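Lab notes, practical 5.
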Amino acid sequence: LAEAALRVQPAAVFYAVLQGDRQVGFASSTIDTSSAMIEQRDYLVADIPVGGSVRRTEARTSVTLTRTLRVRTFEVELSSDRTPLKVRGEVSGDTVMTVVIGSGASVDTQRVALIGPILLPTLAPLAVALEERPTIGKSYVLPLFDPAALAPRDVRIDVRAESLFVVNDSSVFDPARSRWQGVLPDTVRAWQITSQSGAGIAGWVDQQGRLVASTQFGFRLERRPYEVAFENWRIETEEAGDAAKTRPVDPRRDILEITAVAAGKRLAPSVTELRVRLSGASLQGFDINGGRQRLVGDTLIVEREGAAALSPRYIAGEESTKPDTRPEPFLEVAHPEIVALAQRIAARSRDPRVIAQRINAWVHDSLEKTVTIGIPSALHVLHTRRGDCNEHAQLFVALARAAGVPARVASGLAYVDGKFYYHAWPEVRLRSWVAVDPTFGQFPAGAAHLRFVTGGPGRQVGLLRLIGNLRIDVIGTR
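Output from the prediction step:
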């Protein structure tokens, strides 16, 4: 990589963000170089249809590297409606990274141990293309730092295919259409790269490591001249006006709807046992077996916990040294505001079940139910008092741990009105792990919750492997 870094050249490329035949946003990637430093800045803004409405979402990433491609600082900022998130990191000697999450009063600082140089996921195409000419079938293992999990991990990236793309190098304004159009077409050779670990790295990259095209979640990024990518979208957005933002979203474009999985059978509101057949996607690596769930062949059996599982054999605070009671990235368990609220909700009870029930009810009653886009921080959720299942789960887990009750986030699918939607909920350890759901106000949660992973955002990205592939057939309920 050090030798490859010598071939990094300043560049700026621009993209149209498309959903079907409609442009919904703009993206850019810029590289600046000096004798001592490389800086890459990525930006994306898009009007994303989710939860029945359009959400303007912006994402910015800025990374500074040495001339040998060693990350020194990074900043990631994601904003959608009223839910901004900022993560800043600084590497010291390849052995430790200081990470600051949030801004203003909602700040959490953590130190992350490293075992060597790291890259951010946005740098992976650069590293793959510049090390040597990509070859179909070639695999690379890169040490990537995941800003969502705040942890380094080795990620395998495969070169799957090679193709030619026609990309316009410039643009001219067409006064008849009041739009810019591309000119000076150029043929660009590109290679398709993918990652198998849910790292979200996928697309076609050229020999300079610059993205040519990418498709994820039904959205496409296509390289275009700046005026075609940005000015045309700006003009169309201004012409549509505010009415376009309030117009009902076609369910065929809504992310929640297009990623949902049809149940094939109507379920009763309260299900205590559910049997489903899973097909279409590999289940290797998922947290499917254990607790309320049993996988027998391709059949998953989920049973809602009975009274025995709700009777703990310890008192709150006795297991404060266990991993599931400690702070984690985006779980500010030790923050004074989280601790004070947990104590107030517990009201001096030492019974883990009573405390968990009270927290479940408080979170359900106190948070406005609204779809959000981003990675939730428990402290930020406490301040905004709004969010979807991720915010509810994150705040519950932080409060439970602060009260001395082991808890963790579970993610997978939950049944709602004929479909299984991607969902997150907490699990709290009483006599055994018990699923609860503050979003729906369930204690314990109904059996129509299919858990695939446990853990925070770094683990939840593994669900990407299921989207568009998983099939669910309901074969029995009780």
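Observations recorded by the TA: The longest strand covers residues 151-174. The CA atoms of residues 333 and 402 lie 5 Å apart.
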